[in-house]
Structures are given as structure tokens and as C-alpha cells.
């Protein structure tokens, strides 16, 4: 029993509490430690639960008397994980920050042990049966893949197997009937085919979607209609403590959209990744290694635990964490051209297109009909003389209107005819999608934000009162935070703000006339089928708009006949690249507005604060690689010589910019080279140039 201390000695109180008693409590644990179902909260709106009644590999429950030490070990391991190692039994700060991160990492380790219980014979030997090799194997498995859903839960394979079992168990007649009534379940886009990693034969995908739909798994999300990963996890991860109640990334091949056209891309897309998988970042790995080492706290509690020698070896284990794959880059001149085309399209047609749609919406509200009921002549009249002269002939290429109000949403004709009509400006809705792609590209390049942060923007509150700051929810702030995002603000360039304000004005008019009941996502568009609604932006519609823009402006093809289609994860580095190119090619007047009259050193400070290190390093490497590829070596003499020695050639112009970029990035990662702007003053004021410096001499490598 703890002795009562005089007030002046209260600071000693924690040191007089037995660890077995102290670790029975945690800030996040709401109910009793001995309960079989824990209630916990990290300032959530709703309490969450951990059910310890888990069936182990030998068929017994974790809560059974024979597994008492194993259960206590897991429980104490979890309550101790949020303690501060620098303070005796005290908990870390930031309930939703560091504590939650450690909690999630520890749950991942517990689930890994439970999922692999048969391999480690957890029910028979408990935690003390884990040797150094087992602990190192756990860490190596985690390090091999940055996606915990794969490294811990083997999500792709288990989802694949579950889908196939479900398909086999579902009545084929029922599947056929559903696909007839919901044909959108059968639509597989070119992008879905190209990026599919699930491994189910594409001819089976419609039936698999239908089987999942019949089970009630589908729900509408910003990505499109997709299976509820929590519901599926509860079906296939019954042996886990935490993972069965957590959402996971859904493979795009299983997502379907109600607003899809028959032709999504004119050409196959150039692959957006190098094809190799990335590994876990070292900073993340360190946190998992700490979580494994935390098992040692059980020795303090005199509970069965891995031997100290095994824990020490695990704590010293450092697997290879070098990146073995990354997103492929787009040639910078292609992005610069696309940015120019996007801005010009906005200036020439943005206002006309949004006003034309508002007139159509108003007419439909007056007559209480859907836009699809309008005849081609009515559409042209409402679009106005400027758009009619531009080529607008009908509401949408996906709609064949009739005077009776009956329409068909299946596009007739060939792909060549469809994209010919697209570039001839025949479809108003397609032109609006192209315009939306222009806005997305401009905002995406100039703001360097993640795609989910952009297609999740809401027209109601995406700009501050001054209309000079973009307000968004930081996607990376959800890491281990159960999907809750921190709201952040970043200054936005005037041209991008002007585009956004055009879209906001359109939605405000639509709300005022009653076409929509409230402002929706910023990039919401009319439904291609002509229904009386706006379709909220999603990953699908966001990428579809970019695809239509690329096909409209006919971005170049590579040697294989594949088209470069823009993706936001490729755009993120280009704000930094615009800065670098403004310094390197100061005579390019079309880029000078990016700097305006601002001190370039201040602009670069903003870039480093708003762009993470990986993206910034990629931007530097690509900028230098493209300059070397074009023969500009003035600022990179030492780097040029090092690359020539590595390649055994005197002409770097013969090496592709992609290969040069990979080599430069590797040299930067290995600590050979630093690339930074160097500032100087001339008659025009403060200027800069990008300079590469060798940190280590070749003979020291």
C-alpha cells in the first residue's frame, strides 16, 4: 500500500507506486483494466472499443484462464506504450499526437503476432517464446513495405481471396440480374486496368463488384462508390485486436462510379511509377523498432517476455531502408506548357462556360425538368453565341436528347469520333470537365498539395476572407489519427485564386436558384448523363478531368504510343521547379510572375516549409537532370564529372533525363551531393542560381 507523503514530498509519489498498479491506467483508457472489452478515446467524438475475446491459433480464447499471462502481457504492453521514456511512468504529451502514434504502432505489433500466431506458437509459448530472429523478422517485414495494411495485414492477398470466395458462394443468376439493373458496376476504366494490383481477372471484376454490392458493402465515398473496408476487415480479420475495426486503402479496380463515360482515355497512359516498391522511411521504422523494444517493459512487471538479449539485438537491427522505386517524373516543359494552356483556357472560356451552365440550370428549374430533356437547339441557345461559335452543339457527348425527354447515356460511335467531337468543342459538359482539369492542374502545380487535399476542398470554405489563402485539411496529418485531418492554410497565387472564385461563384448561383441545396466540393461538376445535380468531386472525377484536359490539348505521346496524363502526385514538385527554373532561365518572362517583386530567398523559405523533403529533393534532382541533359553544366562542373565517371561517357546529353535524375537522386540520398540555391545581387536586384556541391570526394566513398 502506498504511504501518505507530506505535501513537500509529493514529487516522490510516482516512484512509490508499483508498476503493476501504475500501468493499469492510461489517459486514453476509459473503463477498467480487467475488462474483456476496453473502451478508449483519443479525444474522439465517439468512444472506440478493443475486444480481447480473440480466438488464438489453438482454438482457445485469449481471455481463457490458461492464457492469463499472455493477456496481461498484451494489456500491459499496450498501456505502457504511451509512457515517456525520459520520465518515470509519466505519459507523453499530445493525446492525439505522440500518444496515438505509439498506441497505433503497438496495436500493429500485437496484431502481427496474433495473425502469425501459428508460426510463433503464441498460445503455447507466449511472448517469452519470441527470439531475436523472430523480432528481427517482424521489423524486416515492416521495413519492406511502407503500407502497414500490406506488411502487417497482407491486405491485398486476403481481400483477393475473400472476393473470390464470396463470388463462388453467390448465386450467378442473382449476379446477372443485378448487373443488368446497375450496368455501371461493369464499367472498368482504362486507368483501373492499367493500375490494377489486386490480381483478379478483369472479366470477373463486374461479378465480384456485384457480389460485394449484394452483401451491402458499397457506400458512397469521395473516391467513388467503394466497398466499406471496415466491414470487410471485420469479416476477414477476426483474429486481430485492432485491425478488424480500421479502414484500409481500397483497390481502385473495385470502385465504380455513376458518372462514367464509355471512353475515359484516348490512349494508354505512360506508367506513373517506376514499377518498383518503396520501403518504409527510416523515421517511421525507428518508431516501430521502439514499439518492439517496448516489449521489454514486461520484465519490469515480472511477466513472460522475450529475453533481454533478443530485445537488444532487435533494438540494434537496421535493415536496408533505401528507396527502390518512386513515381516517374513528367518532363518539365510538358508541365509548363500544360500550365500555360490551362491559364489561357480559363481566361478565354472559364466565365462563359460556368455562366452557360447556370443559364441551363435556371431554365431547367423554371420548367422542372432535367438538363437531359433539353434539345440540342435549346442547349445552343442557352450556351450563348460565343460558345456556339466555339463549337458547342449539345449538352454532353454522353447524352442523346430527344424532344420526348428520353435520353440514352451510352455513347454511340468510335473512340476516334468521340475524341474528335471533344476537341471540336461539341459537348458543353465535356468542355466544363476540361476547364475543371485546367483549374485542377493550375491549383495543383502552384499549391503543391496532395490530390486528396484538393478534391476534398469545399466551395463553402476553401478560401479565407481575404481570398488570398487556401484552406485545406492536411492529408498526412491523418497518419495514425483515424482519418481526422488538421486544417491548414497556405497562400495561393492570384491566378489560381481567380479560378477558384469562378467555381465558387457558379455554385453560389446554382444554390440561389435552387439547383443545389448547398455548396458542394469545389470541383463538383454536372453529371455527364444530364441529371439535375452536381456530382461531388472524387478521385475518379478528379483524374477523369485531368485526362480529358490532356486528350483535349493532345499532350505528347512517348515512343510506345502512350500519352502523358497528368497526376497530382507528379505535380507536387513543380512549384519548387518553377522557382528553380525562374532562377536558371531568368529571361523566360512567362515565368517571372511566379516571383513577382518578392525576395527569392523568402519564396524559397516558403517552399521549404510547405514542401516535404522527398518532394523537394525530387524537384532539385529533376531540374538539374534536365539541365545536364540539355548540356547546361556551368553550375554543376563537379557533379558532371562524377556522373561521367559513373557512366563512362563524356556526353551526358546521350543519357535520358529519367536516368540522370535517378543517379542524382541516389547521390543526394547517399550524401555525396547537395543541391541548393545560391543568392547574389546584380543590377536587377537579388537573384539566384541552383548549384550542386560535392560533399564527399570520390576517393573518400
Task: Please tell me about this protein's structure.
Helix content is about 45%, strand content about 5%. The chain has helices at about 20, 70-80, 95-115, 115-120, 120-125, 130-145, 150, 155-170, 170-180, 190-195, 205-215, 230-235, 280-295, 295-300, 310-315, 330-365, 375-385, 385-390, 415-425, 430-445, 450-455, 495-510, 540-555, 570, 575-585, 590, 600-610, 615-630, 635-645, 655-670; strands at about 35-40, 50, 220, 225, 470-475, 485-490, 525, 535, 675-680, 685-695. It has about 700 residues and is mainly α. The chain is globular, with a radius of gyration of 29 Å. It has 30 helices and ten strands. The strands form five sheets. A two-stranded antiparallel ribbon has the order 1-2. Strands 3-4 form a two-stranded antiparallel ribbon.
> Which percent bin holds the helix content?
40-55%
Whole-Å distance between the termini? 61 Å
Please count the helical segments.
Answer: 30
- The number of strands is 10
**What is the overall pLDDT average?**
83
Which overall shape is indicated by the principal axes computed on the Cα atoms? globular
Poorly predicted runs: 86-90, 402-411, 477-484, 584-597
Gyration radius (Cα, Å) is 29 Å
Strand content: 5-15%
Task: Give the strand line-up of the largest sheet.
Answer: 1-2
Label the structural class: mainly alpha
Sheet having the most strands: 2 strands, antiparallel
Number of domains: 4
Amino acid at each position: 500500500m502506498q504511504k501518505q507523503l507530506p505535501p513537500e514530498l509529493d514529487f516522490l509519489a510516482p516512484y512509490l507506486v508499483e508498476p503493476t498498479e501504475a500501468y493499469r491506467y492510461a489517459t486514453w483508457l476509459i473503463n477498467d483494466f480487467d475488462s474483456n472489452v476496453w473502451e478508449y478515446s483519443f479525444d474522439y467524438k465517439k468512444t472506440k472499443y478493443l475486444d480481447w475475446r480473440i480466438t488464438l491459433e489453438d482454438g482457445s480464447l485469449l481471455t481463457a484462464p490458461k492464457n492469463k499471462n499472455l493477456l496481461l502481457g498484451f494489456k500491459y504492453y499496450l498501456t505502457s506504450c504511451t509512457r515517456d521514456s525520459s520520465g518515470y511512468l509519466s505519459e507523453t504529451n499530445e493525446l492525439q499526437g505522440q500518444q496515438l502514434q505509439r498506441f497505433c504502432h503497438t496495436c500493429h505489433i500485437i496484431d502481427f503476432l496474433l495473425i502469425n500466431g501459428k508460426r510463433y506458437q503464441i498460445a503455447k509459448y507466449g511472448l517469452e517464446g519470441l527470439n531475436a530472429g523472430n523480432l528481427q523478422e517482424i521489423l524486416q517485414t515492416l521495413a519492406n513495405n511502407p503500407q502497414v495494411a500490406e506488411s502487417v495485414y497482407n491486405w491485398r492477398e486476403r481481400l483477393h481471396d475473400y472476393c473470390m470466395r464470396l463470388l463462388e458462394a453467390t448465386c450467378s443468376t442473382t449476379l446477372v440480374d443485378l448487373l443488368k439493373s446497375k450496368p455501371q458496376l461493369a464499367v472498368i476504366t482504362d486507368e483501373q486496368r492499367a493500375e490494377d494490383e489486386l490480381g483478379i481477372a478483369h472479366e470477373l471484376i463486374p461479378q465480384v463488384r456485384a457480389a460485394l454490392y449484394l452483401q451491402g458493402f458499397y457506400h458512397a465515398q469521395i473516391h467513388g462508390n467503394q466497398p466499406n473496408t471496415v466491414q470487410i476487415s471485420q469479416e476477414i480479420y477476426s483474429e486481430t485486436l485492432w485491425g478488424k475495426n480500421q479502414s484500409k486503402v481500397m483497390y481502385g479496380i473495385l470502385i465504380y462510379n455513376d458518372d462514367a463515360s464509355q471512353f475515359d482515355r484516348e490512349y494508354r497512359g505512360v506508367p506513373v511509377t517506376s514499377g518498383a516498391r518503396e520501403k518504409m522511411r527510416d523515421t517511421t521504422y525507428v518508431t516501430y523498432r521502439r514499439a518492439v523494444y517496448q516489449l521489454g517493459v514486461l520484465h519490469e512487471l515480472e511477466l513472460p517476455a522475450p529475453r533481454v538479449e533478443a530485445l537488444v539485438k532487435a533494438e540494434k537491427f537496421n535493415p536496408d531502408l533505401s528507396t527502390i522505386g518512386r513515381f516517374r517524373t513528367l518532363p518539365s516543359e510538358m508541365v509548363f506548357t500544360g500550365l500555360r494552356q490551362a491559364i489561357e483556357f480559363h481566361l478565354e472560356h472559364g466565365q462563359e462556360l460556368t455562366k452557360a451552365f447556370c443559364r441551363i440550370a435556371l431554365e431547367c428549374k423554371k420548367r422542372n425538368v432535367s438538363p437531359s430533356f433539353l434539345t440540342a437547339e435549346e442547349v445552343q441557345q442557352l450556351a450563348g453565341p460565343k460558345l456556339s461559335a466555339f463549337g458547342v452543339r449539345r449538352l454532353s457527348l454522353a447524352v442523346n436528347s430527344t424532344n420526348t425527354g428520353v435520353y440514352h447515356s451510352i455513347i454511340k460511335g468510335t473512340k476516334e469520333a468521340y475524341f474528335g467531337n471533344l476537341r471540336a468543342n461539341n459537348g458543353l459538359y465535356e468542355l466544363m470537365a476540361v476547364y475543371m482539369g485546367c483549374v485542377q492542374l493550375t491549383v495543383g502545380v502552384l499549391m503543391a498539395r496532395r490530390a486528396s487535399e484538393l478534391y476534398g476542398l469545399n466551395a463553402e470554405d476553401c478560401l479565407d476572407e481575404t481570398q488570398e489563402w487556401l484552406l485545406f485539411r492536411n492529408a498526412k496529418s491523418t497518419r495514425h489519427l483515424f482519418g481526422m485531418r488538421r486544417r491548414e492554410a497556405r497562400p495561393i497565387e492570384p491566378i489560381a485564386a481567380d479560378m477558384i472564385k469562378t467555381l465558387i461563384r457558379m455554385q453560389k448561383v446554382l444554390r440561389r436558384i435552387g439547383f443545389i441545396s448547398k455548396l458542394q466540393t469545389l470541383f463538383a461538376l454536372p453529371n455527364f448523363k444530364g441529371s439535375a445535380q452536381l456530382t461531388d468531386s472524387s478521385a475518379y472525377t478528379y483524374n477523369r478531368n485531368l485526362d480529358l484536359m490532356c486528350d483535349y490539348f493532345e499532350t505528347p505521346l512517348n515512343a510506345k504510343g502512350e500519352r502523358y496524363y497528368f497526376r497530382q502526385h507528379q505535380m507536387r514538385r513543380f512549384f519548387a521547379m518553377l522557382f528553380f527554373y525562374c532562377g536558371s532561365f531568368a529571361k523566360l518572362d512567362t515565368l517571372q510572375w511566379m516571383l513577382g517583386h518578392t525576395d527569392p530567398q523568402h519564396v524559397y523559405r516558403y517552399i521549404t516549409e510547405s514542401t516535404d523533403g522527398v518532394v523537394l529533393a525530387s524537384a532539385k534532382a529533376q531540374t538539374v537532370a534536365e539541365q545536364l541533359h540539355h548540356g547546361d553544366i556551368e553550375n554543376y562542373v563537379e557533379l558532371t564529372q562524377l556522373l561521367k565517371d559513373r557512366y563512362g561517357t563524356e556526353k551526358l546529353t546521350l543519357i535520358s533525363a529519367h536516368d540522370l535524375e535517378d543517379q542524382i537522386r541516389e547521390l543526394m540520398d547517399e550524401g555525396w551531393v547537395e543541391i541548393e540555391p545560391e543568392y547574389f545581387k546584380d543590377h536587377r536586384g537579388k537573384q539566384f542560381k541552383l548549384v550542386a556541391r560535392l560533399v564527399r570526394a570520390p576517393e573518400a566513398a
